[in-house]
Design a protein that fits this description.
It is a single chain. The protein is of the alpha/beta class and 318 residues long. It folds into 2 domains: 2-167, Mur-like, catalytic domain (UDP-N-acetylmuramoyl-L-alanine:D-glutamate ligase, 3-Layer(aba) Sandwich); 176-317, Mur ligase, C-terminal domain (Protein-Tyrosine Phosphatase, Chain A, Alpha-Beta Complex). It contains 10 helices and 15 strands. The protein has a 6-stranded mixed beta sheet, sandwiched between helices. A 3-stranded mixed beta sheet has the order 2-1-3, with no helix packed on it. The longest helix is centred in the middle third of the chain and has 16 residues, at 138-153. The radius of gyration is 20 Å and the shape is globular.
Length: 318
């Protein structure tokens, strides 16, 4: 959103971000050189590499313990984020006491009031300026508020930056529409791999008012699943039909985490689902067969996770 808004204001920043965005002609990309004076970088706390950055403007949208092999506690994470922000001349921070407490210096606190959620988007006002979004969910409205605050600090015009966000269509693997199944169900892919992200994405999907919301989740990392399987189950229970596939191991090995499987998440979702069906579909091939029979016209199917779960979604609409 920052890259999009700064470009709309004629500032053409360089950027290096996690998700692929559409910039001008050609395919979406996650990095490019610009002609302006700013570079927009997405810092990575997973390995503390964000501490190698020397930002002039630091933006913190939330603080949650996610990378359990890097951080021994939330306090450890907070110390890292405090260090990250300490070197920044300006900081944009979510207006919550526990997050604001991490900044010692000038700070712009952002939040959203009087938010109106619409089908696939939202409307709200900041400093008297209307903001309209074409990406769904409260979390995207908060992201927009943070982005606009950062843009203003960088010298952009608020009115022009806010108007540009109506044309922002999102990022690859963030509520990305993949297409429709043969039966007429719409399939979206999302990179959500933390319980808060899963819940936010499901709530955003509800604004499209589907007949049924089917959520297929692929846990990412044994360590994260071991720490958060109950929370993942609670989040997935927000769907009408929760489904879980086996863990995507990434850099970890199953033998180092005995007893930790995706079934933990499926059972937790079942406990939270008030008697509704929960599908345990360990392998993607089997999941595809079951979902082809399950999905019907009017359904919205979300495939969720940071692994290769998007390949399942693409096969469903092929």
């Amino acid at each position: 959103m920052i890259v999009h808004a700064l470009r709309a204001c004629g500032m053409d920043p360089a950027f290096l971000v996690g998700g692929e965005i559409q910039v001008g002609e050609g395919p979406p990309r996650n990095a490019a050189w610009g002609t302006g004076e700013w570079i927009v970088v997405e810092g990575d706390e997973s390995d503390r590499s964000l501490l190698r950055l020397e930002p002039e403007i630091a933006v913190i949208t939330n603080v949650e313990l996610d990378h359990h092999t890097t951080y021994g506690s939330r306090r450890d994470l907070e110390a890292t984020l405090r260090e990250f922000m300490s070197g920044a001349a300006q900081a944009v921070v979510w207006d919550r006491p526990e997050v604001l407490a991490l900044r010692d210096g000038p700070v712009v606190a952002f939040d959203v009031a009087n938010l109106l959620l619409e089908a696939g988007g939202s409307r709200f006002r900041i400093d008297g300026v209307e903001v309209r979004l074409a990406v769904p969910g409260e979390h995207n409205a908060l992201n927009a508020a943070a982005a606009l605050a950062a843009c203003v600090l960088a010298g952009a015009d608020l009115q022009r930056a806010a108007a540009s966000l109506a044309e922002f269509r999102g990022v690859g693997r963030r509520f990305q529409r993949l297409g429709e199944t043969g039966a007429g169900a719409v399939v979206f892919d999302d990179y959500a791999h933390h319980p808060t992200e899963v819940a936010a994405t499901l709530q955003a999907a509800r604004t499209l008012e589907p007949r049924r919301l089917v959520a297929v989740f692929q846990p990412h990392l044994y360590s994260r699943t071991a720490a958060l399987w109950r929370e993942f189950g609670d989040a997935l229970a927000l769907a009408d039909v929760p489904a879980v596939v086996e863990i995507y191991p990434a850099r970890e090995r199953a033998e180092d985490f005995p007893g930790v499987t995706g079934l933990l998440v499926a059972e937790a979702a079942s406990d939270a689902a008030d008697g509704r069906r929960v599908l345990w579909l360990p392998d993607l091939g089997g999941a595809e067969r079951v979902l082809r029979a399950e999905l019907r016209e009017g359904d919205l199917c979300l495939v969720l996770g940071a692994g290769d779960i998007d390949s399942l979604g693409r096969r469903l609409v092929a």
